[in-house]
Design goal:
Distance between the termini: 60 Å
Number of domains: 1
Number of strands: 0
Helix content: over 70%
Order of helices and strands: HHH
Radius of gyration: 16 Å
Strand content: under 5%
Number of helices: 3
Length: 91
């Protein structure tokens, strides 16, 4: 009999979703002058990213993490998120 259980440990894909949510935020910052509507949209993407990072950390705490690449992606997500938050607050 084969074991068909799925491993739920955190992988690089766990951190990829928050990073993908930060991509439009960076594009908005680079391509627009951040008028009021764009600033509001930027805050929405930032909040979405924070929620996705919290969900990723929940996965790590519940099921653990697999591989060194996972932590590299985690550090990248946190660095980009901090950069975007600082840039948004300064506007």
């Amino acid at each position: 009999m084969t074991d068909t259980s799925i491993s739920r440990t955190a992988t690089q894909g766990t951190w990829a979703l928050p990073l993908l949510a930060l991509a439009p935020l960076a594009a908005i910052r680079l391509l627009t002058e951040l008028s009021t509507p764009w600033l509001a949209i930027s805050w929405v993407f930032c909040i979405l990213s924070v929620l996705l990072v919290a969900a990723a950390w929940t996965t790590v705490f519940r099921h653990g993490s697999r591989g060194i690449g996972t932590w590299g992606t985690c550090i990248l997500v946190h660095a980009v998120l901090a950069w975007q938050l600082i840039a948004l607050v300064r506007n």
